[in-house]
Structure formats: C-alpha cells, structure tokens
Design a protein that fits this description.
Length: 98
C-alpha cells in the first residue's frame, strides 16, 4: 500500500510536469520523508505531532504482520492514492502531447 502511495505521487508529478526525472525524484522524496518523519517521531518529541500524517506510519506503524492492518490508516492512504491518481489523470488529459 505504501508502494501505491509513492507510485501515485510519481504519476501525479509526472503528469503535471512532464518530467520523468521529477516524477521519480519527488516520489523518492515522499517515501524518504515519510519514513524519516516516522523514525524521528520515535526518537524526539518535536516530530511526534507529524507522525500521524506520515503514510509510512499509517500503513506500517502498527506492525501489520503482528497486529493486523489498521483500517483507518489503510483507508486514509488509499484515499490519498485516489486523489493523487485523479489529479494525475486530469493533468495528463489536459497535456498537449502533440
């Protein structure tokens, strides 16, 4: 599910910019930033308020193999994926590809 999120970021950015490099770069940045927010929130209290908005935490923060997937986290990440795919689809349809 986290892969779906980063893929949707890549599609939205790629459709908006037309640059494969920008799409790959921002998708990687989203993945790394989400992981860092989750990891640093466990270490320092400064980052703790940002942890609930991290897609990494929403999907993997509850150790889904041991405790099961949290429904609210999965639904929120899937909603973000849907929004990003819709935005990417709209931006792609409006591009002048001639």
């Amino acid at each position: 599910m986290f892969g779906l999120f980063t893929g949707a970021v890549a599609i939205a950015v790629g459709a908006a910019t037309g640059s494969a490099a920008a799409a790959r770069g921002l998708a990687a940045l989203a993945a790394v930033a989400s992981y860092l927010i989750n990891a640093l929130a466990q270490i320092t209290s400064v980052m703790r308020p940002a942890r609930p908005v991290s897609p990494y935490y929403l999907v993997l923060g509850n150790e889904p193999l041991a405790h099961g997937l949290r429904l609210i986290g999965a639904v929120s990440v899937l909603a973000a994926v849907a929004v990003l795919l819709i935005v990417g689809g709209i931006r792609f349809a409006r591009r002048d590809l001639r």
